[in-house]
Amino acid sequence: MLKNRRSRLARFFEELKLNAILFTNLPNIRYLCGFSGSEGALLVTMDAAWLLCDSRYTEQAAGEVVGAEVRECAAVRMDTVAALAVENALVKIGIEAAHTTVAAFRMMSDKLPGIELVELGAVLDEIRRCKDQAELERLATVATLASQALHTVLPNIRPGLREVDFAIDLEFEMRRRGADGLAFDIIVASGVRGAMPHGKAGSKVIQSGELITIDFGALKDGYHSDETVTVACGEPGSRAREIHAVVRAAHDMAIEAVRPGISCRELDAIARDYIRDQGFGDYFGHGLGHGVGLQIHEAPTLSPRSSVLLAEGMVVTVEPGIYIPGFGGVRIEDTVVVTADGVRLLTSAVKQLLVF
Ligand code: ZN
Ligand code: ZN
To answer: What is the distance in A from the centroid of ligand 2 to the CA of 74?
Structure first.
C-alpha cells in the first residue's frame, strides 16, 4: 500500500528530472512511510527511501516504518542527507518549499554544496486528495466513534451548563471510545456566541431558548473526523428555527449533488445560492467545506475560487452556516466520501434540530 503511494511520485521525478525528494512535512512523511513521530525527514529516490530521525524515535520508527531504511541522525540531520547524497550520487533534490523555513533552507544550501535544490509546491496535496481503502477505513472508524460519543453526551445539555463543561464531557467520551485525541479544539458556541464560526467552548453558561453550535472531531491512527450539529436548549424562537431549516436544506442539497466530476466551486454555489435566495447571503462568509485526512484541513477546498473537480475517493466536509451578529448562528456539517456513483456519509449525528 505505501509502496503504491510512493510510486505515484514517479511523474514528479520524471517531469523535474529529480534524483530525490526530501520530505519535511510530517503528514506527508506519515502518508509515505507510516512514521508517526513529531520530528523527522524522509528522503525518497525512485527506488529507495530513508527515514531520518533522532534517537527518541529510532525504536518507534523501526516498528512502524514500511519500505524505508531508518537512519538515526546523531547531530545535524542535514549531515546525514549530505552523506546519503554522496553515497547515491544525488545531484538534484526536490524540497517542500511550504514546509522549509528560511533557516533550514540556508542550512541545506550550506550542507549540500553542488546539489541543486528544487522548490516543490504541494506535490502530495494532489496525491493525497483521493484516499485509498486503508485511509477510508480509518476515516470511517474515527467519524463513527465521534458521532456516537456526541449522542452519548448530548442529553447533558441543560440551562446552567457551561460550554466548556459540555466540551470536556465530549472529549472524555471520545477518548473513552478509543480516540487518540481531539482533531481540533471543540467549538461550543451558544446564544449570541453562535455568530462566531470558530467560537471555542468558553465559560459562558448555556441559557434556555439558545441555539448551540457544536463542531467537534476525534483523531485516531493519524486520521481526523469533523462534524457539526446545532441543537437547542429549550424551545427555540421562530427565527432560530427558520435559520436552522435554511442551513439544513442547503446542507442536504449540497450533499445530494456530490458526485465525481462536479467542481468544488459548483458544489459551493448550490448551498451559497440557496442561502442567498432565502435572504441570508450576507451571513455565510466561509467556504462550503474542505478535505479531511491526515490533516483536519487539506485539499480540496470547496469554495467559490476552486475549480478542482471532485473524484472518487475524495473525502470532504459539507458545512454551510448562517452567522448573524448579535443574534447567533447555525452550522451543520458532515464529512462525506465521493463514491463512483455519488456520495457516502462518514459522520452520522442527527442533523434535525434537536431540543434539550
Ligand atoms: Zn468542523
Ligand atoms: Zn470542517
So the answer is: 40
